[in-house]
Design brief:
21-stranded mixed β-sheet, 15 helices, seven-stranded parallel β-sheet, alpha/beta, 17% helix
């Protein structure tokens, strides 16, 4: 007994018995857990199969009603029932909108992971009826990858038999060769019915202004929680040239990423002031853009909204009316895809900026390129309005990986020759601060034309060439033509109110060639244009109208000066190079029926009309009356160089420049005794900045206008800007 008391633990036989019992219990538990996990997987897959079923049926009904289904390519037919087709989509196999599958599950209609996953849809094409759906997640627990074309094995475990009878085979699908198959149809579809509803039509409004926006209003109730109706509101964007379609899901299972307020949604399709929000970024190809194939920047787009459900059957899908607009330019833009041309409507600053390829990614070459490019400005453009409609003073233009400094305009550089018609409209108050060339346009290519445009109260600062209209024109084949374009500063409008964008610091300032209208022009024509702005070049030629020009014809144009009490108190045009009242430097070309009232100050050469001429230059019927200063060569008409001996009819005002000669024997003096001045007196309408001239001359210009110089051939019969008062002696300082 004592020995028995000292014994502890179990015998070997007892231990083995316990281990055996534990193994049996573990096996029983594993069977239970495995069955439970399979049941959970099947429940999950059944829910997804039901969602596919509902979405496919809703879209199939719509496709039939719109006549799309009959022309769509079908899947693999069942040999025993020719109106039944199957579809299987393993992996990322695409389904486009020309197939029945693409019509049943279009982009955005269902989660993209599900849409591009592994499933089978069996449907009756003739009846437009979805019979049943298999689904399984290959990457999920007990998942399965369906095999394309091998449908018989799956139909064996479907609730719908070939003879039309219905038998539940749920258990067989739960243990399908070690996998689990989700299913909806058969017994489930014939059981408790899926509630149905009629969708009301959503409405859309397109706002094509300084942003391209679409406002969608959904009249259908958005129910969530236990009464969730699976409402899906979508915006469709279809390219008229590409034929591609994007679908943006606005509301799905309570997700309200685009919500403005209850039932109202906003989608921005083009915002040049935000990174990633340009049309090319949102509707192109790649990560982060709207789902679907890429659209072409600049093409016409068709927009409409649809409303259906992914949880209930709908007997009528909600569809809005269709709206059409241009993706980059105004609503009235005309794109001729067959000839690769476009007439772009410019009605807002965004439209103008989108002419630049580095802003909009618009194509100018290739099968979808837009070349040549024509643009019509149909409204006045206001930089202040653009700032107000975007981010205020902090607005920045995003172009490529770059962006402008806060509150500044990006000078436009079209990728092809541009024909731009301002139609008499204004561009007001732009502010440019750039390390490149500056103006409304940075560069205009050979063959370009700009006409009928007014540039008001522009402030241009550029490290390169600068002009109110354009910094540089390139090309010497046909050149660039500029006609009826004016640049001016306006302090008050006709009602006496302060004019938008006016500041006493307004100036066109460049590091290179700088002009009131054009910085540098290589070849071309300038006709019936004027500029009445301050001009300064830090390291180049400067002119009241043009900084430097070569092989250019300038006719019926002028540059207006700035005075106080009839006298010059500051330099209207100045620079470290050649400076002229009209042109800083002209290397070959001609000037006719043109004049300048600007004061000038140049380091190299200074001239009342042209700072320096070289090659063959002819000047006819033109004059200069501005004060000339400078440390280099000077002339009342021409600062340096000699114009052609065939030149004639040119004048300079000796009253202002004293004994300073014109530098040209063909120029006639308007003498200090006023006799020749009185003969020259024009007495036509003027718009001076100087209140003294306004009061003393009752807004009449004291010299000949362009119209008088051309005997009425030109329409410019008034003068904008100031001029020296002849009765006030303004001596030279030399």
């Amino acid at each position: 007994m004592e020995n028995k008391k000292k014994r502890t633990g179990f015998t070997l036989a007892e231990t083995l018995i316990v281990v055996a019992i534990l193994m049996v219990l573990a096996a029983l538990a594993f069977i239970g857990v495995n069955r439970y996990t399979r049941s959970l997987a099947q429940l999950e897959y059944d829910v997804v199969a039901k969602e596919i079923y509902v979405v496919a049926q809703n879209h199939l009904t719509m496709a039939k009603s719109q006549g799309f289904l009959s022309a769509a390519s079908s899947g693999a037919p069942d040999s025993s029932m020719t109106n039944i087709c199957y579809y299987v989509v393993p992996g990322d196999n695409p389904n486009d909108n020309t197939s029945a599958l693409g019509l049943m599950l279009p982009f955005g209609s269902i989660d993209e992971y599900v849409r591009s996953g592994s499933y089978i849809i069996r449907y009756n094409k003739k009846a437009s009826e979805v019979l049943d759906v298999f689904y399984s997640n290959p990457n999920g627990r007990h998942g399965h990858s369906f095999v394309k074309g091998n449908y018989a094995q799956y139909m064996a475990v479907a609730d719908i038999n070939y003879d039309g009878t219905v038998t539940s085979k749920k258990e067989a699908r739960r243990n399908y060769n070690g996998d689990v198959l989700g299913y909806y149809g058969g017994l489930l579809a014939d059981g408790p019915s899926i509630p149905s509803m009629t969708m009301l039509d959503p409405t859309i409004t397109v706002e094509n202004k300084d942003k391209l926006k679409v406002i969608i209003n959904n009249p259908n109730p958005e129910i969530t929680g236990s009464r969730d109706n699976g409402l899906v509101l979508q915006l469709h964007i279809k390219g008229k040239t590409s034929g591609n379609e994007k679908i943006v899901t606005l509301l799905k299972d309570g997700a309200n990423a685009y919500r403005l307020q209850n039932g109202s949604y906003e989608v921005v399709l083009d915002d040049i002031t935000a990174d990633g929000k340009h049309f090319s970024e949102l509707c192109g190809a790649g990560q982060g853009c709207f789902p679907g194939p890429a659209l072409i920047p600049g093409e016409e787009i068709e927009l409409w909204a649809t409303c259906d459900s992914n949880k209930v059957l709908v007997d009528r899908q909600g569809v809005s009316e269709r709206k059409q607009t241009n993706s980059l330019f105004g609503d009235d833009t005309v794109v001729d895809a067959s000839n690769h041309t476009v007439r772009a409507e410019i009605a807002y600053i965004r439209h103008l900026e989108n002419l630049s390829q580095n802003v909009s990614s618009v194509g100018y070459t290739g099968s979808t390129g837009l070349d040549p490019l024509t643009a019509d400005q149909t409204h006045d453009l206001s930089w202040a309005e653009f700032l107000s409609n975007t981010n205020g003073a902090g607005t920045q233009i995003h172009y490529g990986s770059n962006l402008t400094s806060a509150g500044t305009y990006l000078p436009v550089t079209p990728g092809v020759s541009l024909s731009y018609n301002g139609n008499g409209n204004k561009i007001t108050g732009i502010r440019v601060d750039t390390s490149g060339d500056g103006g409304v346009f940075a560069t205009l290519l050979d063959g370009s034309l700009v006409q009928n445009l007014k540039i008001v109260n522009a402030l241009i600062s550029a490290d390169g060439a600068a002009g109110s209209l354009v910094g540089v024109t390139t090309g010497v084949t046909s050149g660039v033509a500029i006609s009826h374009v004016q640049a001016e500063y306006i302090k008050k409008d006709k009602d006496g109110k302060d004019k938008e964008g006016y500041s006493t610091s307004l100036k066109v300032q460049g590091g290179g060639s700088t002009g009131g209208l054009v910085g540098s022009i290589a070849k071309g024509t300038i006709d019936c244009c004027f500029a009445s702005v301050y001009v300064a070049s830090g390291n180049g030629d400067a002119g009241g109208l043009v900084g430097s020009a070569a092989n250019v014809s300038i006719s019926s144009s002028y540059s207006g000066g700035h005075t106080q009490y009839g006298q010059y108190v500051s330099d209207n045009a100045s620079g470290t190079g050649n400076v002229g009242g009209l042109i800083g430097a002209l290397a070959g070309g001609n000037v006719s029926a043109s004049y300048s009232t600007c004061s000038v100050n140049g380091t190299s050469a200074a001239g009342g009309l042209i700072g320096k001429v070289s090659n063959t230059v002819e000047v006819n019927n033109s004059y200069a009356v501005g004060k000339v200063e400078g440390s280099g060569a000077k002339g009342a008409l021409i600062g340096s160089g000699t114009i052609s001996s065939t030149s004639h009819g040119n004048y300079y005002l000796r009253i202002i420049n004293g004994e300073l000669e014109s530098g040209d024997s063909n120029a006639l003096r308007i003498d200090q005794n006023l006799d020749s001045y009185k003969k020259f007196f024009g007495n036509l309408e003027a718009e001076p900045y100087d209140d003294f001239l306004d009061e003393s001359y009752q807004r009449h210009f004291g010299m000949k206008t362009v119209s008088q110089l051309t005997n009425g051939a030109a329409e410019m019969n008034s003068h904008v800007g100031d001029w020296p008062a002849p009765e006030v002696l303004v001596p030279n300082t030399h």
